[in-house]
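Researcher: Structure prediction, please.
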Amino acid sequence: MAENDNPKVIGVFHSYMTPAGCTQWAEAETGRCNLNVPPAADSIIGQCEYYYRPLNCGYTETVEKIKLSNASSAAAFATVKVFARDFNPWKDVEVIERLLKRREKLIPPNCTDSDWSRHSNFMMRHIGCGHKPPSYYISYGYYYCSNYGADLFPRLSSAGRAWLRKARWSLQNYMEDGLSQNMQGDVIKLASENPRNGGFEMEVLQYQLEISEKNFKEFAFKTHPLAYLDGGLAWLNPVDMALILSGPAAEEWGDVDTYKQVGSSMWGALKNYGGAIGDESSELVNRVLNRLMNK
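Model: Predicted structure follows.
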């Protein structure tokens, strides 16, 4: 393996002998752009920290300001989305030093390091190349999981809690499958083990899913109805569904076309239940899915 192909190397320096009066400096090539996305450890799947760990002061300060402002859930989530979109994690020197010291532990497959997340793994594979982690990891991933999910969980029935845990696990499992397929080729094809819950297919150039903000968000949103239905949403009792409906939800997707695409597959999957659930229950499931997806 050539030195500059070694994933452990983040810079290559060249030195040469010169006369005492020479002022020409040796060149230094720094940076790393590793597009190969390693699989996550099984133990992290289903945890909010799978997406991101709140190590950065910028994130914690933003969330604290939101809490102090008593902003509505929609306004709060809109603020987090803007933060995630504009956030430059490389400006937090203390966190960067911490992660770089542990880089060799954070980039291998199935990493169980306490600082690992999809976000930190991306950072350690993309050093100085201009790529940013998908904003989804912070906003729709960690923030939504650790705030909305944490608030809703204790109010649900045991069946509702099981649904929330399963849906969260399924969301991340589908994400892992999609990232893995993108390492193999230009087509991502995912389907639920339950034919009723549907599936989807999309084309993304090999190795490009995680570095494309637009494609990654579209892909992730397409997995949502699969995960919610796989979790057993259609079979929850009306009380749990009412709690989901009354819980905090984000105001907008910010991408109408994506919403329409995912909405189409979601309603198509729901129709596959046919007479298995009554008309009234079907309408309630329809409303709950709409609430969950309208973020």
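Model: The radius of gyration is 22 Å.
Researcher: Thanks, that helps.
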